[in-house]
Amino acid sequence: MNKEKLIQVVQKANFSENTEKEIIKIIDQMVDKLTNEQIDNILELIDFEIEATHIEADVLEELALELENYASSMDNISALTAHKIDRSSDNLVEQAKKVGIDLPSSDSK
């Protein structure tokens, strides 16, 4: 594994600009002193971090979708509950009228 390949992998990792510059600076200083095995280990660590970031992003995206579904379900439940309350209120008004009690209907809100 050569220095250029190592630098390409670092650039592909999407580190912050400052971090990338520091890593490349270290690579420039140390690459001649590193064995191929050490370079491979560095690449494996970077690949692991990249994969972990992708997995984390996928999990967060899935979580966001689940939260959207949950919010939508809560909206539907709220709307259904409000409708049932209105119907119950109307039924109560009708029942009250039958026994001579005059209550305002839910339509008069």
What do these coordinates show?
The radius of gyration is 32 Å and the shape is rod-shaped. The chain has one domain. The model has no long low-confidence stretch (mean pLDDT 85). With 109 residues, the protein is an all-alpha fold. The protein contains three helices and no strands. 3% of the residues are buried. It starts with a helix and ends in an 11-residue tail after the last helix. 80% of the residues lie in helices and 0% in strands.
Spans where pLDDT lies below 50 across 5 or more residues = none
Q: What is the helix content?
A: over 70%
Helix/strand order:
HHH
As for the number of domains, it is 1
- Note the beta-strand portion: under 5%
Number of DSSP E strands: 0
The average pLDDT score comes to 85
Largest sheet: none
Tertiary shape: rod-shaped
- Report the total helices: 3
- Class from secondary-structure proportions: mainly alpha
Distance between the termini: 76 Å
Rg calc: 32 Å
